[in-house]
Each structure stands twice: as C-alpha cells, then as structure tokens.
Amino acid sequence: MENELIHIDGFEIRCISANTLIIGSGAAALNAAVSLHSFGQHNLVIATSKWGGGTSNNAGSDKQTYYKLSLSGTQPDSVPEMAADLFNGRCMHGDIALCEAQGSVRAFMNLVSLGVKFPHDRFGAWAGYKTDHDSRSRATSAGPYTSKRMFEALAGEVKRRKIRILDRHQVISLLTDNDKSRVIGALAINIKEKDPAKAFVLFNCENIILGTGGPGGIYDTTVYPVSQTGSVGMAFEAGASGQNLTESQFGIASVKFRWNLSGSYQQAIPAYISTDKKGNDRKEFLNQFFPDYRSLTKAIFLKGYQWPFDPGKIGDHGSSLIDLLVYREIKEKKQRVFLDYTSNPSFGKISDFLPDELDPEVFNYLKNSGALKKNPVERLHAINFPAFDLYRQHGIDLSKEMVEIAVCAQHNNGGLKGDIWWESDLKHLFPIGEVNGSHGVYRPGGSALNSGQVGSYRAAWQVFRKYNNPVSGTDIFLKQSKMQVEKKLLLAKKWLAAGSHPGNKKYLQEIRKRMSDAGAIIRNLNKVNYAVSEASEILNDLPGMIGSGSVRELAETFRLMDHCLTHYIYLEAIREYLAGGGRSRGSYLVTGTDNAIIDISGGKITHTGLCNYDRPIEKEILEISYRDGKTFSKLVKPREIPAQNLWFEKVWKDYLEDNSEGC
C-alpha cells in the first residue's frame, strides 16, 4: 500500500494505492474485508465516515432476526426451498436467490465461529422460529442487537488482522476510466483535517466494495440511525444502475429513540393513543375501525409478526390497517401518536384485559409464554424482558411513560444492480449489504442480514479470484481521473468561498420532507409527478445555493448533494412505476387506481382488491440509471432459479479447472 502527495488546483492531496478499497464499516463491509484478507489479499483499506456509525451497529428490534437455512428440528428444509421462498417474494433474480440460500449456512457458521451468540440447545441444535414471508422456521436471533453483535465480532476480527482503517474519511466520489465502464478509484474528505487545502484523499485502486447501507438520509420520518445516511448517489453519478428502488419497507417505530416496534412490542398488546401537539385530548383512535375487542387485540398482536406495512393486510381488519390509521392520524390530522404499555386497549365499556375474549391464536401464544398478565408492561416483561430493558437503557421507562411512534422508513429492498458475485454493471464496483438491490418486493424478515454476509463473501472471492491485479501507477491513474477530481475540487472552492450557509439544513429538510410525503406508504401519481419536478429543479440549482465554512461542513455539503441526487432518482423510479400502471404492493398503497383505499372517513374502509401482478411493470424488475443529467429506465424479467447439475465428478472437474465462473 503506497502513499503519495500530489498537488491539484492548490490542494495538497494524499493518494493511497491499494488493490481494494472497502467503503463503510457495517457488518457486510467488515465481512468483505475479513474474507478478502483471509484469501490472502492484504493490500486493502477500509474508509468510513464514522467507524461503527452504520445501521448494523445502531439498529435492531425486539429480537432482531437473522434468516438462514433451517439446521435443526423435524421440519425438512433445503437450499432449493429457501431459494424458492426468496424468489417468490417477486422481482428478485432466481440465481441470486439461489446464491443467498446456498451461502447461508457458511455465512451463519462464520458468525458463530467469530463468537456471535446465537442460541442452541445442549445437543447443538440451532433453534429457529417463523418470521414474515417464511415457509419454515428459518429465523434465529442473538437478541435485540443481533446486527450489533455481528458488527462487534467482525470489527474485532478486522483489528486482529490489522487491516488498515481510515476513520472519519467520507468518500464523496467514485472515479471511473475514460469509457466510464469501470471504477478505478475514489475521492474522499478527511473530516479530521482542519485545513481544507489538505483535507482531500485520493484512492487509486483496482476494486471498490461499497457497503454504505441504505439511503436513510433522504427520509424525514425514519427509523434509520441518525448516523446512517447512505451515499448511493455517488454510485449513480458514476454510472452504476439501480433496481427496485420503489421497494422500501415501512413500519411502526419509536421516534425519540429510533427503534423498530415489532415482535414482542406488539404481542404485549399495548394501547394506541392519539393526542394533540401538546399531549392533550387523549383518545384510542383505532376503536372506530374495528367491530369488537377480539379483532382489535388480534390486529395489534399480529402487528408483531407482520411488522412491515403491507397493503395486502389492510382488509378484514388486518394488522396493516393499524399502520394506515397511525399514518393518517399524524399526517392528515396533525396529531401525535403513542404506544401506552401502562394501559390495556379499551373497547366500548371494556377497559380491562380479558383473556377469554382473545382470539385463540393470541390467547395460546400469551399462555404458552406465561404472559397472561393484567397490563401490557407485565406481558412484555414475561415475553421478552430485554425488549423492555432496552428502552430503559435509553432513558425511557415503559412502565411509566408512553412512547411516541410513527410509520417510518426502515429498509430499502432495492438499491444498486449486481450480478451473482454482487458486481455492479459498473465493473470492479461491488455493492454489498443494503446498498445492493438484491431483494425483491417481499422478503423474509432477517434475510437482509444473510444477504449482506453471503454477498460480501462472494464479492471478496470474486475480487481475489478475478481482479487480484497490481494497482496501476499514479501517473496512469491521474491521466484518467484528474478531470473528474478537478470538478469536485472546483465545487469545493466555490462552497468554501461562499462560507457557512444557513440554507444547507433547510434544503436537506426539504429533500427529506419531499421523500417522506411522496415516497412513503401512500403514493399517488400526481403527487409524485410534482415531487419529481421539484427534485429535478433543486438538483440543478443546489450547487449555487449552498456553502461551507469548514472541512466538516464541506463533507456535509457533498453529502447534501448526494442525497439530492439520490432522492431525485428514487422519486423518478416511483414515478416510472406508477405511470406504467403499477399498483399497491410491497410496503406502499397506491391511490387513484383500482385497488386503492377509497374512503377512510367515518370509521369506514373501502378496499377493492389487491395487486395481481399481471402487468409488466408489476412482474418485472425496474432498472434505472443516470447519465448526463437524465434518468433512463427499463424493465427486466427476473431470471429463474437455475437448474443445477450437481454430479460430483463434473463439479470437481469444473472446480479444479476453474470453469465455474469463480466457484
């Protein structure tokens, strides 16, 4: 690994050469680093804007799920069956589903060997449970902080191997060759540097593994950790294509302390409370939409199993009706909404908890869990005490105070396009983790963690096997990248000359509000058209309206531009889907179509059917790219799950002769 100082346009820039640059410090990025190092490629460097600042280390739920092939019990399971469940979530390529299923055991056992404490019995059986969109009990958990435990284990291994880490280095641009066919490096800002003239860092590299997570920074109402902002815009700007950008997941979460309120938090059956802005005028606003106590408590309970909002679970007083009513209470009525664990849901004259009036599924679960207690907080204690204690550790005592909630952006099932090795169509760029759009419309809960581990391993193996080349000389690198670097430096000079600008925060808030208003759980073509127009306008005007007074502000200004481009492309993808006749699916409801909710007033819900996936825009994968200031989209049919020839002698021969494209 070489370091040089070069001078461009008055900036003294450190240039680091390495075979592979890994951007990000989440569980996927760190697994890529550990895997690549274990293969023998030690010329690599990790650059991250904040060590441990991503979703992996800062997010979770009641018992955060990791999805894998079943490894115990009497219920049979197989790789083809798991691949089929992933593929049947729609708009996912079958060969990628097969890779995620096939690699799940290796990925899971690697985490076990690193010390992540997934539960097993005294015979060594890895216990599982059923998660959403799961035909088997493939889910497991290391507790509320599963992904955090993964981060800690992998971070420990990265440091044990002494892999170079450049903390507080925010990558602001991916650099490409003259043909814009592959990445050749990146430009970053060292946020710790005080002098802007010395703050820029160049990376000259053969490969970039991008593990910067989902686009949490473009939403106003979000459960993404504050430190998780995403940086997918720079990949779009460099020429990488996206896919399934329409498919974000939304769910009920707390807003003071950002946390998913799934699983046990709902199975304890708390009361849903609405108040005015000052906390007065308390009312249980769900009641008028449910016919009786049993249907109300069942919907709340099922919200635990069926946490993401799903338009298919609105009718017949389903669990997603709750999300819709919470959203309406906040967005339309301008109220605040809370979960109250000190009070049972009341209905008419019923104010006590009535076990005998519960749906049998609810009663049996609570009975088997020893949780037929008189109030929600006691039930939560019995079901999952760590879930209760988690809030107490963050200064919120659920036995004494209500927790404020909203329907929040939680995960993007779409992202950058990748092949079965997680390589982008912009060659030598490997998007892994949430920034990779491998998921389809519906995915089993916890499959994102598996995908991040499997994909990062496969990306590392492909880098080692196919792109394990010496880095080009600095002169050759600069010949191709200098003009790209100069454009960014020109912007930096312009913003630094303007100084600190109060508009930076205002424009960021506008971006976030626009995305949450037009691209959340309720979507309408007219509203999205208007949002796209606004996003396009601000994208063109923003460079001339902002400024920076320090290195830290300069990094934030480049991030603002990244968010602006990202939200424009995401909104454009949503517009393409709606304009093509796309209807409600995934985690959003489309109004103004033949399957919309028509009336939500006066306690009445009119629901006239769900998406049948019979239109091309609904059956196929929407890909989108950005070139020369314009977006280009196309529909691609999902590839089927490949039929494998697993005759051992053939596989062995291909493996020895390296005829299996990297296996």
Strand content: 15-25%
Briefly note the CATH topology name of the largest domain. FAD/NAD(P)-binding domain
Q: Write down the oligomeric state.
A: single chain
What is the CA–CA distance across the termini?
Answer: 28 Å
Report the top-level CATH class of the largest domain.
Alpha Beta
Q: What is the level-2 CATH architecture name of the largest domain?
A: 3-Layer(bba) Sandwich
The assigned structural class equals alpha+beta
Helix content: 25-40%
Number of alpha- plus pi-helical segments? 19
Please count the beta strands (DSSP E, at least 2 residues each): 21
CATH level-4 homologous superfamily of the largest domain:
FAD/NAD(P)-binding domain
The general outline is globular
Would you identify the regions where 5 or more consecutive residues have pLDDT less than 50?
none
Mean pLDDT: 94
